[in-house]
Design a protein that fits this description.
There is one protein chain. The chain has helices spanning 7-16, 19-31, 42-58. By secondary structure, the protein is mostly helical. It has a domain at 19-58. The relative contact order is 0.20.
């Protein structure tokens, strides 16, 4: 069907718009990857999640 966007395409576009947030989250996790625990980088993750959600809605 022409004009129909697959979910993975929507996700890829959202990811592309959130590279700064993804970088900050990744750096937080990598800072002590042997000591990762639940909610270690919760603030950074929530900013990334919010960015993805907003970018997906803008489509």
């Amino acid at each position: 069907m022409p004009g129909r966007t697959r979910p993975i395409e929507k996700f890829a576009e959202a990811v592309a718009k959130c590279s700064a947030e993804a970088s900050v989250y990744g750096k937080c996790i990598i800072a002590d990857y042997n000591g990762v625990y639940k909610d270690k980088c919760l603030t950074e993750f929530m900013k990334l999640k919010d960015c993805y959600t907003a970018a997906a809605k803008r489509r």
